[in-house]
Amino acid sequence: MVLTIFNTLTEKKDEVRPRDSETFRMFVCGPTVQDNVHLGHAKTYIAFDVLARWLAKKGVKVFFVVNVTDIDDKIFDRARNENVPYTAISDRFFNEFLSDMKSLNITTFSRIETVSNYLEKSVELVQDLVAKNKAYTLDGNTYFDTTTAAHFGKLSHQTPLQLRMKQVDAAPGKRNGVDFLLWRKIVDTQEGVWDSSLGPGRPGWHIQDSAIAFSLFKGPYDLHGGATELIFPHHEAEIAQNEGISSIVPFVSIWMHTGLLLKNHEKMSKSLGNVVKIVDALKNSNPNLIRIYFLRRHYRESFDLDLKSLAGNQKDLDIIQEASKISKRNASTGEDEEYMASFGKAMDDDLDTPKALSILLDLSKKIVDASKSSVEVPAELQKAFWGMADTLGFNLA
Asked: End-to-end CA distance of the chain, in Å?
C-alpha cells in the first residue's frame, strides 16, 4: 500500500511521497523555549517521530527539520523577572527540550534550528514581500497584506466574511484585520532588538519559520506539521508568505496536524498554567508507557489527559518487553509477511497507530506464549516484532 496522511489543506487523505527528489522533506513547528515542554508537546512530536520512522522503514530518505523559537516576548519577560540575560532562559530550556526528546526516544529529527540563527534570512524575505507589494509598513512595523494572497483562509477553510470578523496582530490603521506582522519595530528596550534595513526590531513569529524552511529546503517541500492550534493564523500565514515569495502553489504539499491534549476539557498550554511537564511526568512514569498512551489514540484526536489510564498500560508494556527479550533483533531471515502486511496496512492508513499497536501486542503475546510452552519462536516472527517495535519508537534496549 501507499502511505496516505490526512491533509488539512485538501481535507482528504493524500499520498505521501517526495515531491521533487528522493528525499522526503518535512518541517514541524517546535516549542518556544521560555519553559519546559509538556505532554501536549510529547503527543505531537511522538506522532511525527512515528511518521519519520515509518517512512524510513519503507525505504524513504527523510530530512526532518524542527524549529525552536528562541525570540519571543515570553522569553524576554522571564529573563527580566529573573534578572538574567534572555539567552540564559532560551539556552536553558532549549537544552531541556533536547533532554526530554532523548528521554522519550524521539530520535528522528535531522536538524533542530533556533530562529535566532536566521534573522538575516527573515529580513531578506520581508524585503522581498515589500518589493513585490505584498507587504506594507505602518508606524515602523511591517505587515503582510492578506488581500494579495490568493485564497487566504484556504488552510483553515474560512470564508472572506469569517476572516473579516477576525483580528490578527491588532493595530490601528492596518489595511485588513487579518494582516499579520512580519517585522516589529522596537525602540524602548535593548534586549532582543536587532538593527536591520527594516529598522530596529525583531521578526514576526510566522516569518521566522519561513526563513528556516527557505534556507534549508531551498524551495517547496513535502510536509509541514504541528498541532491543530497552529492552523490559524500561524500556518495560514506561512502559506501566504511562502507562496507570495516563491509564486509556487502549493509550496507545501501536505499540512498535517495533531489533535490537542486537554486537561479538564481545556487545551494544555503554558499560558493557561495547566501543563504537565514531560520532565515531571517521567518522575512517575516510563517513556515507553507515555508512548503507548499516545499511540493508543489516533494522532488527529483531541482528548483529556488521564494519568491513571497512562499507568494502566503497564501490562501491555510488560508483554512487549518480555517479547523483546525473547526475540533476536538480527535474525537472519525476513519479517513475517502476514503480520507485517497487517501492520503496514494500518500504518499506511493515516498512521493508524491504535491498530498498529494492537498488532504488535498480538504478536508479542504469541511470542511470549510460544516461549512459555517451550515452542521455538519462528525467526520471521522475531524479526517482525522488531520491525514493528522500532517503527513505533519503543526503546527496549
From this structure: 30
Q: Residue 357: its pLDDT value, please?
A: 98
Strands 4-7 and 12-15: antiparallel
Of the listed ranges 78-92, 110-124, 187-201, 321-335, the least confidently predicted one is: 187-201
| Phi, psi (deg, nearest 5) at residue 19 | -80, -50
The CA–CA distances, whole Å, from 354 to 7, 358, 385 equal 20, 6, 16
Q: What is the pLDDT of residue 311?
A: 86
As given in the structure block, the three cell numbers for residue 386 are 522488531
Q: Which residues contact 83 (CB under 8 A, 6 or more apart)?
A: none
Distance CA 293, CA 311 (A): 9
* Residue 42: C-alpha distances to residues 97, 252, 276 (Å): 10, 24, 11
| CA separation, residue 74 to residues 77, 92, 244 (Å) | 5, 14, 29
- CATH superfamily for 19-263 is HUPs (3.40.50.620)
What is the Cα 300 distance to its own chain's centre? 12
The average confidence (pLDDT) of the chain is 96
pLDDT of residue 10: 98
Domain boundaries, the chain: 19-263, 314-392
Q: How high is the pLDDT of residue 271?
A: 75
Q: What is the pLDDT of residue 302?
A: 98
Mind listing the pLDDT tens digit for each residue in 272-315?
Answer: 888 999 999 999 999 999 999 999 999 999 999 998 888 889 99
Which residue reads 498535517 in cell numbers? 256
Domains 19-263 and 314-392 share a fold: no
Sign for the pseudo-dihedral over CA of 50, 55, 56, 57: positive
Among 206, 191, 68, residue whose Cα is nearest residue 126: 206
CA 307 to centroid of chain Cα atoms = 23
The residues near 87 (Cβ < 8 Å, ≥ 6 apart) are: none
The CA–CA distances, whole Å, from 81 to 32, 36, 86, 89, 302 equal 17, 17, 10, 11, 34
- To the question of domain 314-392 being in CATH 1.20.120.640, the answer is yes
Distance set, CA 64 to CA 12, 266, 304, 344, 394 (Å): 23, 30, 29, 22, 19
- With 80 as the cut, is the pLDDT of residue 78 above it? yes
Whether the model pTM is above 0.90: yes
